[in-house]
Amino acid sequence: KHVHHSHRRTDLFGAFVSVETITLRCVLRWVKQRGISVYPHGVAPFAQPSQCAIVTIDLLHTNAPGPSCERAIVMRPNRPILKLDHFLPYRLSVLSQKVSQSVAEVYARSHRLSTPDWKVISLLANHGPILPAEIRRFGTLDKAAISRALKRLTNRGLVVRKSKPQDGRTFEVTLSENGWRLYGDIIPEAKRKEDAILADLSDAERAELLRLLDKLDHFYSDRRS
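The structure corresponding to this sequence follows.
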């Protein structure tokens, strides 16, 4: 990931390129540890297409105007490979992480809220007052994370507990006036962040995206019911 270029010249596949020797050795050691053999392009004519893959190695010259590419044949067994770029669960997981980190800038920096804190506040604003156990049904937090978030929010005066009249042993949680005020401050910032994330989508594409997300969500809702 971190490549430090130098003016030392290293012979790789017959081409002199300017790379850090130590970095090159680490890459080759990593390849050898995984049982992959690397040959210069055209040196391994015995290899069948099903037994190898041709990859392009881009190496930047420090003393050349543009990048230099060297082709190599990477020998590996013919095993099935799950192409992550086309695997929906992986793509959704990575995208969700990126979006969450981007939105977290809104409530973490200015309002000192953790991600579980913000999730609980959002759920209470949409569904409260509710039992603490019901928060799990609406979100993705486990029982321990919900309990810790409620404790932090209660200590800050953002959430209040209300005993249920018909059962004094249980209580519901809801946003306090301070909690609603904080939530109202965050909403415009969150909407601006959402607009930035969806800026490249047309109104029709945004509507279609929500429709497809609802369809996928209904699939899992039907399986739970």
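The first helix runs from residue 21 to 33.
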